[in-house]
Recover the amino acids of this structure.
């Protein structure tokens, strides 16, 4: 499909009317975004927005701002995304386009959360949920719940986050949305990791990774490999941790995904520091293998022989 659209766009443009050209650019951008080619998608959506201004149709202009916001958000440019979604939101609201209004509030709330504007994010997501509920859109409601769960997780409110994620999962709102299900699994995996429940963490993160791989979602795969790298570091399986983090780095480089690249050096440093510290600590016969999960009788708040600073270990699902 992408090849056909590119061939068509390469043909003499005087043979096309503006609406067809605009639609072709948008379709091309969606294909590029779906395979995580965000820089090319950004160029295609910019062409779409330019043509939408020439046509003077508000809904097309709003769609252009929205699509560019999605790309900026995927690239970790949250300030730019917030501005683009705000532009789209104002138009959707003015023309009474409720689904666009709700979708934009959802994405805007996600951006605000990434910028630690938690109160604003909560307000945006709550408004989105109300519109989705009025429209009977269950998938949208579930997406909002995940967004709220992410806010709790970003603030280390693990119980609240788990309750929200479980509500979305148990409500079967994501039965036909694999990407949404993967987001929930990723969030639950993060919670299990923070609680040192390593078996549960590995199961949910691996399941999320499988879904992202099937969907060819490069960003989801990158984040999942990074999270598995953190898990292996906590378990003292340092060689595996390095391999997983390096794999994430290769994917992130290919995607120009700066948020992940910014974390790679930090995570690898943590692995090497933990590995060095572990080598300096003599283990007695009674010491537990750090790669093993604590027993049910053990107090999970007791640290492993080597602990890793988790203050910088936040990954966006």
């Amino acid at each position: 499909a992408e090849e056909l659209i590119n061939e068509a766009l390469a043909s003499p443009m005087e043979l096309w009317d503006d609406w067809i050209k605009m639609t072709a650019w948008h379709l091309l951008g969606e294909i590029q975004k779906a395979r995580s080619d965000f820089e090319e998608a950004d160029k295609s959506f910019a062409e779409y927005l330019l043509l939408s201004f020439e046509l003077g149709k508000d809904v097309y202009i709003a769609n252009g701002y929205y699509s560019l916001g999605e790309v900026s958000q995927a690239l970790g440019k949250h300030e730019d995304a917030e501005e683009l979604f705000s532009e789209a939101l104002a138009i959707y609201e003015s023309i009474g386009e409720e689904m666009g209004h709700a979708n934009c509030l959802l994405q805007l709330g996600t951006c605000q959360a990434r910028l630690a504007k938690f109160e604003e994010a909560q307000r945006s997501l709550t408004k989105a949920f109300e519109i989705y509920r009025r429209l009977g859109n269950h998938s949208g409601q579930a997406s909002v719940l995940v967004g709220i769960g992410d806010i709790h997780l970003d603030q280390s409110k693990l119980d609240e986050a788990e309750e929200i994620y479980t509500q979305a999962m148990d409500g079967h709102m994501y039965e036909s949305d694999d990407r949404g299900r993967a987001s929930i699994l990723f969030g639950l995996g993060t919670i299990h990791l923070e609680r040192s429940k390593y078996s549960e963490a590995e199961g949910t993160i691996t399941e999320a990774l499988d879904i992202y791989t099937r969907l060819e979602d490069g960003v989801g795969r990158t984040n999942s490999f990074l999270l598995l790298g953190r898990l292996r570091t906590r378990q003292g399986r340092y060689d595996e941790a390095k391999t997983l983090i390096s794999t994430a780095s290769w994917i992130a480089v290919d995607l120009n995904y700066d948020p992940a690249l910014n974390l790679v050096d930090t995570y690898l440093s943590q692995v090497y520091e933990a590995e060095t510290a572990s080598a300096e600590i003599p283990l007695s016969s009674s010491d537990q293998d750090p790669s093993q999960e604590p027993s049910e009788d053990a107090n999970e708040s007791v640290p492993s022989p080597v602990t890793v600073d988790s203050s910088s270990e936040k990954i966006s699902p």
Summary: DSSP finds 14 helices and no strands in the chain. The two ends are 29 Å apart (CA to CA).
